[in-house]
User: Fold TetR/AcrR family transcriptional regulator from Nocardia lasii.
Amino acid sequence: MKRTSYHHGDLRATLMAASLRLIESEGLAAVSLRRVAREAGVSSGAPYHHFADRAALLSALSVEGFELLAAELTAAKAAATGPLDALTALGAAYVRFSREHPAQFRLMFRPELSQPDKHPDAHVAGDAAFAVLGETVAECVAAGSLPPDRAEILAIAWWGLGHGLASLWLDGQLDKRSARMGTHTPELVEEIMRTFTALITPGATGG
Assistant:
């Protein structure tokens, strides 16, 4: 449903929400400042009060997405019982975020659209989200659960696994596989993350 009015001061949020609706319903190609204004029910010039161009709008959405992701990863980590458990929780939270915020998730990893070279806030926000994973891997190393000489490699591998599962879920493939296996997708994701944890921990020393 189009929103035809907004309270003073929340035009920016209104426009961003309208953008996400467009991305979800018609894809990224549908987003333009004029189209977003029409979707939000405001004048065609209204978006320019907050966004210089399309890239600035998409960058803002990307920043917001990474900030939301960082908050969810931080919460998942805080609720975990230890560093290794936190790794599993982070993977599940990452995949869950993609399912709950599909429009932003698809945009966040499209730098040619958000143009982080012109809008560095998106790059900074992305690094902050990844730092939650990096810190957790470092804690696993400190606890002797992961080998220190593979910390950076394992962090990237963990990210790659989570991102791959997220993409498969968004494309509907993971649901199909889960149904064939007689389980539910969230449970399958957690089991995959736990299995990966078990595979990478043998042989780690406590020194």
Q: What stands out?
A: The longest helix spans residues 54-79. The domain at 1-51 is CATH 1.10.10.60 (Arc Repressor Mutant, subunit A). The chain has two domains: 1-51, 54-200. DSSP finds ten helices and no strands in the chain.
